[in-house]
Structures are given as structure tokens and as C-alpha cells.
Predict the structure.
Amino acid sequence: MHNPVIPQQYDISWTIALVAVLALMVAAVVSVVRNTERMSLPATVVWIVGVVVLPVLGSLVWFLVGRRDLRRRPDPLRS
């Protein structure tokens, strides 16, 4: 349905932004879940809730800080 007040370009822009945010959020959740062996259960739950509640900020913090922190810890499966 076309809204005469809002130009179609805004609809397209918001749709692209929404898809990008959803893709970032899904990638972050998948990354958290794939690293559950190296984190405690409470830490995993906090990261997932943070990513879902604040998708952009939570995802960026996970990719910039959370994963880097895990790289410093030894992998218990490789020990």
C-alpha cells in the first residue's frame, strides 16, 4: 500500500536498514551460541539477551569485545 505522505524511498531505506539490523543480530546470536563451550551459561544468556534487546549495540559490543575476550582464554576442548 502506498502512503502519499511518505515517499517510497523512505520505505525502501527503512526496509534495507531493518534487514541489515536483523542480519547483524542473527549473526551475533549464532556467534554467541557457537562459543557456548568457552563461556558459562549465565554469560551466554546475558550476551544473547543483550543482543536481542539492543540489536545494534549488543551485536557490535559482542563482535568488538566479547569475541576478543574469548580469544584470550584457552579453549577447554583443545587442552
Q: What stands out?
A: The chain has three helices and no strands. The chain has one domain: 8-72. The mean pLDDT is 86. Residues 8-72 form one domain.
